[in-house]
Design brief:
Number of strands: 15
Order of helices and strands: HHEHHEHEHEEEHEHEEEHHHEEHEEEH
CATH architecture of the largest domain: 3-Layer(aba) Sandwich
Largest sheet: 7 strands, mixed
Strand order of the largest sheet: 2-10-9-8-7-3-4
Shape: globular
Structural class: alpha/beta
Number of domains: 2
Helix content: 40-55%
CATH class of the largest domain: Alpha Beta
Strand content: 15-25%
Distance between the termini: 49 Å
Length: about 375
């Protein structure tokens, strides 16, 4: 196990960010978060909780009122989900780690659709599982999934299929037909689906959310869905998430929460409750702002000679590549060191992302995006 931990790579995004340590002239778009602060109503709710002395442990699974509110929130988006399937977690990444602890162990096979935020595949490796990678393919800058390749990769020996859609870093989003095909196949093979749907509300298509496995699965299907308050409610630093599980799994996940974190802090959960209460108005307005940022950035990138990019259907990222720049880490370091432009190297998301760069366009001031494109143009000698 110590050897497994030693082999885990350090964050290449952090490596680029560290190259800008101490500088205040860098336009940073490398991390997966907006530069807007958390809504005031959420901050006020947490402050009231602290002032009232809510500084003690809560239930492992979360405050009952938050679990109920989450059940109602999920139901409003996807149909009936009750609180007996909800577990509150200390962040979305903690939710995903708990899911992997619940389902995978030494020698198990975990298949993952990649490129992918590297923490997710690392979690499986930490548990001693073997990771099998199913690569999305770029087609004119867009990423697509070959369902035949997925079916061939996911067999009766595959314990878990890990799938993130809308996807970080590509913005790729599953269609309903693709979801139905994947669910049907995993039912045949007996494979669990762990669906990372933390970006589901950051969706630029029809409806109030991206297609979710919760829309089509039964409440006893082998499906675990991970969510987070971080992206849709501008709460990245709060570390609050939740899981939707099949019936009968709350006792097990409650034990794992006890062994990992005991519980999420009560004042943070109060902030989550306030966020859900304002979701109906706040989230659509946030998505509209993100759409405006996307539609401002993508055409400017596409206009640069040698740049390949397409408009992502979900998420908060432009994933693009520059002709002749095949070493994304070296290129990202040059951009930050010599031009003050901070982007995430595609290789940070696995070998499938090499040669690409990720640009987080979640900015309260879209003029920052314009300035960033100008710096990239100068770097390309334009």
């Amino acid at each position: 196990m110590r050897e497994t931990i030693a082999r885990l790579p350090g964050s290449k995004i952090r490596e680029v960010a560290n190259a800008a340590m101490g500088r205040d002239d860098v336009l940073a778009f490398w991390f997966g978060e907006s530069d807007e602060v958390t809504p005031e109503a959420v901050r006020d709710a947490a402050a009231r909780s602290l002032r009232s002395g809510e500084t003690f442990y809560s239930h492992n699974l979360g405050l009952p009122e938050l679990r109920q509110a989450l059940a109602e929130y999920c139901t409003s988006l996807h149909g009936p989900v009750d609180a007996e399937r909800i577990a509150v977690t200390s962040s979305g990444v903690n939710a995903l780690m708990l899911a992997m602890q619940l389902l995978a162990g030494a020698g198990d096979e975990v298949a993952a659709v990649v490129p992918l935020w590297p923490n997710l595949t690392a979690q499986a490796e930490i548990m001693g599982a073997r990771v099998r990678r199913i690569a999305l393919r770029p087609m004119q800058g867009r990423w697509s999934l070959d369902l035949d390749s997925l079916r061939a990769a996911v067999t009766p020996v595959t314990r878990v299929l890990l799938i993130n859609a809308p996807n970080n870093p590509t913005g790729w989003t599953l269609t309903r037909d693709e979801q139905q095909a994947i669910l049907a196949h995993c039912r045949r093979t007996g494979t669990w689906i762990v669906a990372d749907e933390v970006y589901e509300r950051l969706h630029f298509g029809m409806g109030s959310a991206a297609p979710s496995f919760l829309d089509i699965a039964g409440d006893e299907d082998r499906l675990v869905v991970a969510h987070s308050f971080s992206k849709s409610f501008l709460m990245t630093g709060w570390r609050l998430g939740w899981l939707v599980l099949p019936r009968g799994h709350l006792d097990a996940i409650g034990k794992l929460i006890e062994f990992n974190t005991s519980c999420a802090p009560v004042f943070v959960q109060r902030g989550g409750l306030a966020a859900l209460q304002m979701a109906a108005d706040f989230v659509p307005a946030l998505v509209a702002r993100l759409r405006g940022c996307r539609d401002r950035l993508i055409p400017q990138l596409a206009a640069l000679p040698g740049v390949e990019v397409a408009s992502p259907p979900g998420g908060m990222y432009a994933f693009f590549r520059v002709q002749g720049q095949d070493d994304s880490l070296a290129f990202a370091k040059r951009l930050v060191e010599h031009h003050g432009l901070g982007l995430a190297p595609g290789v940070a998301f696995g070998a499938e992302g090499e040669g690409w760069l990720r640009w987080c366009f979640a900015s309260h001031d879209p003029r920052r995006l314009d300035a960033g494109v100008q710096r990239l143009a100068r770097a390309l000698g334009l």
